[in-house]
What does this fold into?
Amino acid sequence: MAGMVSTDRLLAFAAMSFLLIVVPGPSVLFVIGRALAQGRRAALTTVVGNTVGAYVLVLTVAFGVGSIVERSVLVFTALKLAGAAYLVYLGVKAWRERGALRAAFAEDAGAAATHGGLRTFWEGFAVGVTNPKTIVFFAAVLPQFVDPGAGHVTAQMLLLGLIFNIIALASDSVWGLVAATARGWFARSPRRLSAVGGVGGMTMIGLGVTVAVTGRKD
It folds into this structure.
């Protein structure tokens, strides 16, 4: 499949993807919030969910749905507001449950942790699949790196999207691990840990509001 996309195009797309990914956006900030509120495992699970959600966007673009999202203000706005509302909901939930962080931090991992991991994965997926910045990038930028003359346009898009997601997986994991490491210092004090939960919740709320009021408007 790589033979259908020239090395120059692959490198140029990778460079542009890196510039977009490394700047904290909805996904990165959500991962950081999760790392501060729930720790390393939740952060990395969120990263995986985000990555899978982002690749769903690649699939929609590759099979033509992305162009509809890019051209329709109504569809784009609906997705953006849905993602923003979900972020605010999760932020409020984290804020209200901040006092329980100490018990959650100390409890033994078991069946309940598995359930929590699945829930965290799907929450990360929801943020990834409704990320306005990623939607715009995949719908408007990704197709520009496709070479129609080489054929297999859909396969080219899938390959380019995979490159984007590999970079995002690595970058977001670093953000999450760094944030989770800082969380450990706060965890030594119940008051600090509760404050971390509050900060994580407020970060998600602020992020949701920011997503709702910014982005494409026409």
